[in-house]
Amino acid sequence: MFFGLRFDLRNPEAAATPVADRYAAALDMAEWADRLGCLSIAVSEHHSSPDGYLPSPVPMVAAMAARTSAVRLMIAALIAPFHDPLRLAEDLIFLDNLSRGRIDVIVAGGYVDKEFELFGVPMDERARRVRDMVATLRAAFTGEPFEYQGRTVHLTPGPYGSGGPGLLLGGSSEAAARRAAHIADGFIPSEPEFWDFYRDEALALGKPDPGPCMIPASRVVALSEDAERGWEQMAPWFFHEMNAYGSWQAASGVATPYRPVVDHDELRASGRYAVLTPEQLVEEVRAAELPYVTLHPLCGGMPMDLAWESLRLFEHEVLPAFG
Fold first, then answer.
1. pLDDT tens, position by position, 73-83
2. Which of 113, 251, 280, 316 is deepest in the core (most CB within 10 A)?
3. What is the pLDDT of residues 219-228, one digit of tens each?
4. How far, in Å, are 80, 85, 139 from residue 155 at the CA level?
5. pTM of the predicted model, to two decimals?
């Protein structure tokens, strides 16, 4: 089996945890995952969130790169309209060298209106800014001089390997899916339903068939020796995440896996979050078409002791079942 980790590092007041401690825990968990053969660690970006959602994925990925040696590190997603393309290109080239070629970036247009207000960026410029960002990054990752806004620029040093970090597009619309087929190395939809638009456009352009969507429906899984007790302990943090993302979704109208819920029963019925015993997870993975699990250990401000309890069960009781 394969596994990945993701972090957004929400830290609501109820968690009563210093932000510095949460950041340190994420780095420790990245090192733990790398030791166990983790395939990928994803770090997200949002701004001015009341719960302190990570606003700076590039420095966090740099810190993770310094603590790991094999796992791929992904910014998922980087919100293009809020970044200067040349400065971002320099930072990503730096990451590429620091990690020795282990960086992937999902570029997205963003959807939270208050973030656009924060940076003074019109939301109707999202598509153009995404296209411009990808074009600039691709040119910069060649390591050669290129034309940028009517002048020739050359960013040094060059990337670690040919082509630099992988560039994918994220999105939650048909337009984003079709755009990805034209300008990106791949597409990561917020919901699997948008994959077919990407596949159709790629085929129409004469590109290789990317095949059916292999991205599973978004779901957070945590482990406990007693699933019911674990649910009681973890549900408040899942509830916070669901409603925090859900409020953004409700305000924007974009298609995401999240929606506001009124209580823990509705949360559980959504199927978006599950607490399983190790035995239950082993059974699920063995029955799955794609034996891959994404763990979100600090979900919604999860206390570090609960997060580590889940990860240790994964290490000692799930992974050994697959040799």
1. 999 989 999 99
2. 280
3. 899 999 999 9
4. 19, 12, 10
5. 0.93
